[in-house]
Amino acid sequence: MTNVYIMDTNQGLQASVKEMFAHLEKEGPILTSSKEVYIKVNGIDFKKHVHTSPEVLEAVINYLNDLGAKVHVMENSTQANMTRVVFAITGYEEVCKRTGASVIYLDEEESEIFEFKGKPSNKEDPKGYILKNFRLPKTVVKIIKNREKFTYINIPKLKTHSMARVTLGIKNQWGFPIHEDRGKDHNFNLHSKIVDVYEYIRPDITIIDGIEGTIHGHYPPTAFVDRLVKKFNILIGGRDTVAVDVVGARVFGLTIDEVPHLKIAHERGLGEGDLNKINVIGKSLDEFKEKYEWNLLPEFPDNVKIVKGKELLCIEGCQNNPLATLQGFAYDYPEKFKGGWFIVMGKGHDPDLVEKLKAEGYTKGLVAGYCAIEEVGEKLQKAFGKRKVFFSRDCNNLAETVKAELKLAGMTVFDLVPIPPNELMALVDEAVKNGSTALTPL
Questions:
Q1: Is residue 113 within a helix (H) or strand (E), and if so which, with residue range?
Q2: Separation CA 185–CA 395 (nearest Å)
Q3: pLDDT above 50: residue 38
């Protein structure tokens, strides 16, 4: 039996972290001879409720410090963001200063080439699995090549995900590839590619921050927090990340068959995916009776026309990335957001699409993903002008999507960031000076 531990944080966060590690230490030492520990948080963005809580990170670092560890905290935030900016706004940078942990901005490092080598998640699709190379930052490569020398601890947040179904321990590894390599093939193949990255670098310990969890995706609009953010007050941990994730998914009421990347990881023999073979210690899973939705809440502004292809539209990229961005902008910034534009996505559009858009009064918009760009992109730009029709390339380039939707909505990136523009630009300038490869809407 594989052990997974569910600790109740109502006893106090430091106490629950200590109890978690007490269980984990029974299965083997936490530190290696080097005493170096690398922690990967889920620091995708500075928006509330989407990232690992600084309090959980600090409690873990404090415990490791008591063991005499040398701690490093690393991340490569999501596309359209810079890790240095995220760490400054979330409080991660201050946590590291207080605890003496070093910060590693992975987007500012040199990288090395690896290969996606898995099998397709959708085996019936005639396109099959497109093999592509991807790059990993040098710190991640160092851990991979010296796996016995370092302890790698993974601290994701308890979240559903509108593309991957859940984003827990395995999905947290998707933060390692550099931005330019994430958007390509971000379609039905995403599930296998997530596991490909996980297969290269598996954590020694995964602890899910479940103080709160998000439903209807990983990026809830602040306006919907009362509906989309739920208090769970737990930590879920173990040494087998697949098993930890299966338990985390079960907290949301989801089975392994409903989360493709968990099923693929289990089938590849990368961890225990059978809940009947997982020994859950601490809080009982019987306490979690509700099933939560992972897909986006179906609420979007009426003044933006969403045109979906009838032949092919991947929820993993060209559909839910633009829609999640749209939802956040429209409902979190209603006083600034302007509609009157369209989003065209997927493959299989009506031949009279341009005429229909004109008849409804639309003159500008976004074409998301290479399928839509190849089919109708040139036609739309010819009809409305290149300055009014934006492209988001690959299987949705998130930085290009954010930039386009901001422009179409009459907003700027400074509307999104809760610090003065001069402070933001100072952080951006420092990241660029240090070689950041982040794709941003700036």
A1: strand 111-115
A2: 6
A3: yes
